[in-house]
Records
---
Amino acid sequence: MNHQQLTGLIQKKRSFLCIGLDSDPEKIPPHLRSFDDPVFEFNRAIIDATIDFAVAYKPNMAFYESEGLKGWKSLQKTISYLRNFKDSVFTIADAKRGDIGNTSERYAKAFLAEPPDGFGFDAITVAPYMGEDSVKPFLKYPDKWVILLALTSNPGAFDFQTQKLQNGHTVFETVIQKSLGWGTSENMMYVVGATKAEMLADIRKIIPDHFLLVPGIGAQGGSLEEVAGYGMIKNCGLLVNSSRGIIYASNQTNFAEAAQEEAFLLKYQMEQLLSFHSVVG
Amino acid sequence: MNHQQLTGLIQKKRSFLCIGLDSDPEKIPPHLRSFDDPVFEFNRAIIDATIDFAVAYKPNMAFYESEGLKGWKSLQKTISYLRNFKDSVFTIADAKRGDIGNTSERYAKAFLAEPPDGFGFDAITVAPYMGEDSVKPFLKYPDKWVILLALTSNPGAFDFQTQKLQNGHTVFETVIQKSLGWGTSENMMYVVGATKAEMLADIRKIIPDHFLLVPGIGAQGGSLEEVAGYGMIKNCGLLVNSSRGIIYASNQTNFAEAAQEEAFLLKYQMEQLLSFHSVVG
């Protein structure tokens, strides 16, 4: 999915919500355990209930890998199911991968290549620590995206990312600046945590046009209004993620309705913000 | 496997060789393709041929993930096979993972927990960009190891890792220094590329006792003598990895013998170096 299509989707759905499918077999409703693949049943129900309100879905690989082969089957079924809605959802592999060039090529194939060669996600999150040759292999797939970690939402972000380099800029600013030479606003986005929303204003000075993937509202405490206030641009330029706040809104038989309600509430706020910032009429 | 056991293994085998099982289905010998699981057959033959000369094996996850479910089955069989030699090999999941705390916990389970909960590797490589809470969950498993990326062997290492912070230290030195508060030399190692061997002397000033995992000799151009000269300590403290130089020494039916010869040559050099530096008598 290209930049224009993603922007069109946001305008059509009047939402910039991304739902994180961090689906933990121990946290999903107990009544699903009798299914052959409880995690897939859970994901399918969540997707069906929320697809009118979300523009993107983001399974985090850790929750699937930790279940071994069973987990990979659940993931494969989930991405296949999402691909039924190909033109109306943007799919993100939250994988935070990155390795030397010839190895990153393999990760790129795994997540971005179309089936049967790969999962066929629209985008993958990538860790920047190993630099240019670890990121570039992910940029070779047309209409696919690298979402580079810049300033993450967790406490550990202050360990290295916000440290100042001798060039006067922080590590995360330097990651953004340097990576501008690797891709464009048509194939790169950046992760910027909602818990550091006030830093979005400075980030927008470096990347006025790029999409940002913003985790950390809800369970992690970030504010949607602040994120939009500091980070929204004329075509929106934001995907704001919520995981636990939506998918675990209830662990009873009504979990999908509860997730729908949470997604609707966020979408409703987002619609107001899109209108307030004149992204939609 | 704990520090003492690993050191004992190095002394017994008179080797500090780690073999990278970066097993690419397109590069393994064509005659293996008729097997049900060519990658596992390849790995098993390589392991059998080299186990007297290597102390560690390091499958890189990218090469398995990129083959989908089939790849995960090959990986599972490979680690099960390696666990037959539990006391005589150290196993490393080269995964370069790292995510917010609750998510890193899942990766830790996937790779470090004993079967059937996880793969049961002895160690996992971890990317430091997201800081303390992204690394600590991997340190909760007794006698298991985090191998933190510090200074990697690829050209992109110069993009961020070697940049100087305002504290006067480079990013990678700061990663090492800060992480000393998260674990000990009994559960943390660091990746330092052989292509930057001369930097090992400075690194040893910060971490005189920690094991280092050193990739980049062979295909990437690093020198074993330099690595030992700058990085070896009284109990060795090094695991030096070779992947392509060993496993793809031949792609004919003699591939295992060719791999054995390459592993033997490295082991022979290592034995000399261990003796020269008085690690073994």
Note: The domain at 3-276 of chain A is CATH 3.20.20.70 (TIM Barrel).
---
Amino acid sequence: MQRVAARFAAQGFATHLGLRLAQAEPGHCVIEAPFGEHLTQHTGYFHAGLLTTLADNACGFAALSLMPEGQEVLSVEFKLSFMRPATGMLARATGRVLKPGKTLTFCQADVHVVQESGEAVLCATMLATMMGVAP
Amino acid sequence: MQRVAARFAAQGFATHLGLRLAQAEPGHCVIEAPFGEHLTQHTGYFHAGLLTTLADNACGFAALSLMPEGQEVLSVEFKLSFMRPATGMLARATGRVLKPGKTLTFCQADVHVVQESGEAVLCATMLATMMGVAP
Amino acid sequence: MQRVAARFAAQGFATHLGLRLAQAEPGHCVIEAPFGEHLTQHTGYFHAGLLTTLADNACGFAALSLMPEGQEVLSVEFKLSFMRPATGMLARATGRVLKPGKTLTFCQADVHVVQESGEAVLCATMLATMMGVAP
Amino acid sequence: MQRVAARFAAQGFATHLGLRLAQAEPGHCVIEAPFGEHLTQHTGYFHAGLLTTLADNACGFAALSLMPEGQEVLSVEFKLSFMRPATGMLARATGRVLKPGKTLTFCQADVHVVQESGEAVLCATMLATMMGVAP
């Protein structure tokens, strides 16, 4: 999973936000961000744009992990449902491949927010379509 | 539209990313981000998470502009289609209310990327559901 | 779950298509349609519109089952990913509530198609937002 | 646009529902269904599954109209927002191509319901991803 780690690290946006690649296995990927004021929306929760970035990364790199060497992954489209206010110490997106394919890979990511108690609360979920492209 | 400007500015995430509120009228909102390495994905384009953040802001504040004073706006869900690689000097999301409502407001945002030539290329579009909540 | 059965049966569309309510428990609902030429798209598979109708029913009635007596359920929005061609003897949507709420209920439905061998193949998945309304 | 008419007519589902291909031009397609009890959900409106079928057809055939001869069109994914109760004499989906492509075509369809007064009310909108495949 060195390839996933390398492509993850090549994202200026992920670095700027302080995202962490917590886990990467074939068809599976976990991305995290600890809470900070710089990640909040106007009422103090994690911003929907940040949760989306976590989930997009988790889906995209889960998809990339099953693609032939040398391919890059691009997001074709995604949809998120925001089920609960995302408040807590750490946001974590867990992405998995639902169906790999030669052209398109379908993925889902659940976004949990970890509370002080350690409990992980499901706050959002994403369905995504990823595409493998030759560089 | 002072309320929109105030709520926009209250987002730590928007400040951290350098987003600009370019326009705010009833049912309409434009948010921009000039290109920078800190906004890119692994192949150098604007990151899907950044484009989503712009579109989410444009939809959310277009919705808020039609809500009763004192309400806050939350993102219930959204979906984006990424039609073209988002490469250029400036990304701009233009949000509009499709249907306001007492509980839910339906919105759409188009995301264009402005080229060196000045041409604005449509790169993504979002359909979003926003909810007004009492603080 | 008599209420779910009654509301399911009140749909002219479900009757016209020959849908069956296969299971209804709190927060969970299964809807089926046996294959027929009248349910196909132009290449002979189950039509995306039919798979959507199954999934919309499965999500909607899973949501209704957790709502206060007397409320009706309406579809606010949904998104489906079609992962594989839907070909086989029977299409079955299994809906579950991800997060119930006073106003909005978030649901997901998986659509499987049962093969002659008995194998159930995942062909589509839906994320949906449902709303409870007073009649 | 004979090809669109032929592929539209090849759908058992469209025939069973009484759908009409009202217009077909390059990158543009209109599909209609007059109201009937057999198209309703449990409160008497046009069923979300029927509105989806109209919109899916309008997007799919708008996409097909721009594809090379001999290709078929398949729905990869779509999302609909249901903005208003769909009640009236006729439901009409107007689909257009937002961005054609060699592999994927991005489309949008608006669904209006025509009232007795003749007014057409926007009730739903779809964003869709369509794929061209060799037969």
Note: Chain D has a mean pLDDT of 97.
